[in-house]
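Pinned message: reference record for DNA replication and repair protein RadC
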Amino acid sequence: MMPLTDLPLAERPREKLLLQGAKALSDAELLAIFLRTGVPGMNAVELAEHLLRINSTLHNLFNATEHEFCAQRGLGAAKYVQLQAVLELSRRYMLEQCHREAVFNSPQSVYDYLTIKLRGLQQEVFMVLYLDSQNQLIKDEVLFYGTINAASVYPREVVKAALRNNAAALILAHNHPSGVAEPSQADKFITQKLQQALSLVDINVLDHIIVGGKNCVSFAERGLI
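Predicted structure (tokens):
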């Protein structure tokens, strides 16, 4: 192990970030800045490399349960709390940017927004994006929790919520915690029911998007709406 203080200044993660910017750093170097210190036998960068190796991806490390996270060498409750705060701040920052620029006129713009909101949730939720006549976001809202089917999603409640929020159009969305984004027959059925109900009050359903893992499926792109 070589202490970080023995490395040339330009190779130390903090100094490298100040000199070259955060994008110049590797995942391990960025994680080392978060860790701050190493453990006996490993400096902070070596510990970061070790953690990335045993977790395979940043996603696995960041989505570990508190118990799984704290059980790993060099980590603990304090680091877990710090990481959750950093992740939540990042999520809120990205959502703030999305809200500021939120004109949902393409599937990709919706994907980006919903990925931040729904990816990583362990429970299936049904969300509605309420849009004005310019396709700008008025509000997003989770209306239902649990497996999406005709018994758990009530068209009357969706219509009431859309009218309450003065929406001109809606985008429906839900997640598949399994990571498989393909729509089920129940997804297709409830989408048709919601379209029919909302058409009676002149509110368009622009899309229904399923978020599963790293993938999103758009009903509009599939020709299902």
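Pinned by admin. Summary line: The longest helix spans residues 77-100.
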